[in-house]
Amino acid sequence: MKNLIISLSVVTALLASCSPATDKKVEKNTSPDPKKEVATSTQEPVKIDPATLEIPGDFSTLVPIDLLNNKSTNVHDKYGIEFSGNCYSCDLTSLSITKKQIRWTNVCDEKDTFEIDDFSYSNEGNKTIFKTPERTYILTQIDKAPVYELVIEGKKLELKNKRISRYLTTKKALPLFTEHDCGDFEG
Asked: Cβ distance 167 to 66 under 8 Å?
């Protein structure tokens, strides 16, 4: 009889500990004395629900910039619009990230896009990490201007007519950066 009570107590304790909705565990006294319930609180790790995790609003309109003058202390002179990718080859890509989609778009042709729908994301300080089955995209805010650095890890991302810039800024902040005028450039 004692073994039966001990076995039932162990099974009950295991079932109670597996329930994700409970904040308290109830342990049963296994002695032959009258049964007493002892409530103990448990601390579960804090989990952030991806549905409540926000993607920064800036990420909906990121445009490419380049490091033009690494010696400059003025961020708007240090980074700027790349001449060849915008005027000559017209192969740079802008980036738009929402909760549902990562979209790469050619800066010269808004219809030329590459979209990713299957991804997860997390925030770690000034970094936002996006994971797909093939790659990990890490966007780090390196300046409050804002300037973001993009690092892609994993399988190489090859896009036709869409070259990915290492540095990005918001479309709203782009006019503040050094700009080369394409002028009458024929290319």
From this structure: yes
